[in-house]
Amino acid sequence: MLIIKRNLCKCALPILLIMGILITGLYSPALAVYGGINLATPVSAPVNAGYLYAEKLTSSSTYGHHGIDFSAASGSNVYAAYTGRVVTKADLGGSSYGKYIIIESDHPDYTGVKFYHLYAHLSDYSQVSLNQEVNKGNQIAKSGSSGGVTGPHLHFEIRMGSNSWYSQRNPEGILSRSTSDGYGGVLGEVRTSGGSWARYKRISGATKGTDVNYGASYSYFVMANGNAFPDETAYGINYYIARSNTGNVTLSYDYGARTQNATIYANTDYKVNTINLP
């Protein structure tokens, strides 16, 4: 089920994706924005919702998290989320991603558009080689704690259009797009009283039984180069709460500075009203 306010012809979607034109109204980010990519879950583990996409790790951090983390034990099997070719297989030692793999895939809807999925902090990636073709669901590695981490987990990223650190999109908008799992998704904009994007604001009220460490969602921070995350500038959203339990909820913004009522429907992504904080 999709809730769409503005009809978009399929021919226009590649232009919106590449040029980053703002989409307003009610829409499914998975289909109207990211396209109909149907990813497989890369590891059998819940998402660590204590450290979401575009969230700051600590108050002193200068930029947001470029992916999502699965709370996977060391040695858990990691699977290709989509069919493609291994374009990067590297080891950064005790820093950054540690052992990681990047797979390049053809976008199923947009001819000539590539997207990339990255798997990091691996303990073993001997299952694949560089330039190898892999199918969705093939085992490609084992999760671990290599690189700059405090404990074992799988870091997962989506890069849309180019294999660049600054081309990330929210994996929850694709991987957990709430189209068939019985849960729902809610997304929107949080802005300051002056109309600019609000940064690092707590959003609570939607419950997520599929995640660990879940207490709230946070609005996006900034990328390492100081620019906004692409979801803001291209798609007009700075939070996306996926895999939410259905029903009527009251969303609270910045510890109650603003609230709004919303209904979360099964297998539907719903863009709620924009919130302007005082």
Descriptive tags:
single chain; 278 residues; mainly beta; Immunoglobulin-like; Glucose Permease (Domain IIA); 2 domains; nine-stranded antiparallel beta sheet; 3 helices
Write the layout of secondary structure elements.
Blueprint: H1 13-19, H2 29-33, E1 68-70, E2 77-79, E3 84-91, E4 99-106, E5 114-124, E6 133-134, E7 139-143, E8 154-160, E9 168-169, E10 184-188, E11 190-191, E12 202-204, E13 217-218, H3 230-235, E14 239-244, E15 247-253, E16 258-264, E17 269-271, E18 275-276
Parallel strand pairs: 10-17, 11-18
Antiparallel strand pairs: 1-8, 2-7, 3-4, 3-6, 4-5, 5-7, 5-8, 8-9, 10-14, 12-13, 12-15, 15-16
Structure description:
- This protein has 2 domains: 10-38 and 174-276, Immunoglobulins (Immunoglobulin-like, Sandwich); 68-171, Distorted Sandwich (Glucose Permease (Domain IIA)), CATH 2.70.70.
- It is 6% helix and 31% strand.
- The protein has 3 helices and 18 strands.
- It has helices at 13-19, 29-33, 230-235, and strands at 68-70, 77-79, 84-91, 99-106, 114-124, 133-134, 139-143, 154-160, 168-169, 184-188, 190-191, 202-204, 217-218, 239-244, 247-253, 258-264, 269-271, 275-276.
- Strands 1, 2, 3, 4, 5, 6, 7, 8 and 9 form a 9-stranded antiparallel beta sheet that branches. Strands 13-12-15-16 form a 4-stranded antiparallel beta sheet, with no helix packed on it. Strands 14-10-17 form a 3-stranded mixed beta sheet, with no helix packed on it.
